[in-house]
Amino acid sequence: MKCKWCDQEGAFETLDKGYWELPDGTRAVEINELPSIQCVYCGMCYQTDELVGDVEEQLMLIDTSKLSATFTYKELMNQERLLKKNYFDIDRYPL
């Protein structure tokens, strides 16, 4: 796999942690076991644009007051949604 940062072959899929600010701006949370890409050459560990979009969408559609300060990616994605989709994200869901 090619690294998006240094453009070298040798990146691989892994699990890492990431930090997100909740959509209402009240606090930040730590997400563990987050699917990520790690590069053996430059050392960068990052998430794909698609995964970032999925996390942000899920945070918009759930009751974030029920979240602890730290949780796993699977726990986040298994949270019950209040809406089926984010109707305000016109880039992902054009009219």
Q: How would you explain this protein's 3D organization?
A:
- Strands 1, 2, 3 and 4 form a four-stranded mixed β-sheet that branches.
- The chain is 19% helix and 29% strand.
- The chain is elongated.
- The longest helix is centred in the middle third of the chain and has 13 residues, at 49-61.
- With 95 residues, it is of the alpha+beta class.
- It has one domain.
- The protein has helices spanning 49-61, 73-77; strands at residues 11-21, 28-39, 45-46, 70-72.
Structure described in brief:
Pfam families: YokU (PF14122). This protein has one domain. About 20% of the residues lie in helices and about 30% in strands.
Q: Notable features of this structure?
A:
95 residues, 4 strands, 4-stranded mixed β-sheet, 29% strand, 2 helices, single chain, alpha+beta
Strand content: 25-35%
* Class inferred from helices and paired strands: alpha+beta
Order of helices and strands: EEEHEH
Q: Give the mean pLDDT.
A: 91
Biggest sheet features: 4 strands, mixed
Number of domains: 1
Tell how many strands the DSSP assignment holds: 4
Spans where pLDDT lies below 50 across 5 or more residues: none
> Which term fits the overall shape?
elongated
Please, how many helices? 2
Radius of gyration from CA coordinates: 15 Å
Task: Bin the helical content.
Answer: 10-25%
Alpha-carbon distance between the two ends: 35 Å
InterPro entries: CHP03829_YokU, Znf_MqsA-type
